[in-house]
Each structure stands twice: as structure tokens, then as C-alpha cells.
Amino acid sequence: MKTTIKTLCLLFIFSFFLSSCGKKTAPAPSPTPTPRAFTLENQDIPYVKLTPSLDGHWLYLEFKNLSKNFSKIDYELIYSAIDNGNEIEKGLAGTIEQSELNSSVKKDLLLGTQSCTNGCKYKYDSGVVGGVITLTIANKSSQVATVEYPFVLQTGSKIKQSGISYNLDNLIIKANTSGNDSYLLIKNPQSYSIFSSSNQNSKWTDISPKSVTKSTESFLGDYQFE
1 lies in a domain? Predict the structure, then answer.
């Protein structure tokens, strides 16, 4: 009897030892390396053209001055909207791959949501008056740089009453606009730029502060700042 118990104990210890030897600890996941940052030279910072649709529900994103050293651009659009009387933050994002950078880039950005399960249906956001678009640019050395472009969205009738303004810089541009065309003021690295849903070319009447200047009378286009 004692021999049997001793044999069973030995078998149990032996089996436990084998099962312990068979266990393997999973290797810890390797952390994703953080991309190194690089500084964009002034001549390499992209110029952003952001044109609103007539009803202001879409923004059409285009670029000028894209360096051949860029390998990818991630864009993120953040804006404020009104939902049931409350101001909420909305956003969308996307990526422009290197193959697209070699051609004319144009992205249609919807200020709202869409459902295309059975034909596309859209729900547009209301009360959108501005936001910021952020570009995260990767170069061919796997380094990244980030540039922000704040913008203001306004109708022609409101601009005629009180102008279009960018409060953070105390900028106000007044013009004799007409109708309900949509206008967008965006701060590019070297200028303030105004784009419109139509080719109606109004004239600006006043610019404040005086350090902001424009070489032509056209309301649309680039305004230089010191």
C-alpha cells in the first residue's frame, strides 16, 4: 500500500514538472517607436486652399507647394457645430498617400455624416462657423512635421454687415459682398487667404490691423501679414 501511494506521488510530481516545463511566457510586445520630428523650411510648408460649397456643407481641400520629399500627409479637420442648441466639436480625418502627392490633390470634406448603404443620404451639420485643419507630414526619412491652419466660415450677407474676422489675431476684413454665397478665411503660413463658393469678385473696403495688406482690390485671394 505504501509503495502504491509513493508511486502515485512520484507520478504526480513528475507530471507537474513536465507541465510546468511546457509553459512558455509570451514575449512582451515591442513598443512602437515614436517618429522623429523635423522642421519644415518656410518654402516647404504647403499652401492650403480650402473652398466652401455654395451651401457651406462641403469644403474642398487642395494644396500648392508640395515638396517632392513628402511621403505621406495625414489631415484632420476639427470644427464646431450646433446640435439641439448645444455647441459640439466634430471632426474627420484622412490620409493622402505618396502616389496621390505626385498629382493634383483634391479632397471633398463633408461637414456632417453620410450613409451610402442604399444610395447616399447626407445629414449636414448646422452652425459651423470655423475650425482648424491639421496636417501631419511625413518625409522620405520617416520623420514627421505638423502644421495647423485655422479657418473661419461665413456667408456673404453677414460679411456685408460686419465683415469676416479671425479673433485670435484681431483681424477684420470688410467687403461689399452680396447674396448668401459662402466664404472661407484660412490662415496660411505666409498669408490669410479667402476663398468663395462662387467667382463673384467683390472688393474689400477695410482691413484691420493695418499691418495686413493686399496688393489688389479683390476680396478673394491672399492678404499678407508681417
Answer: no
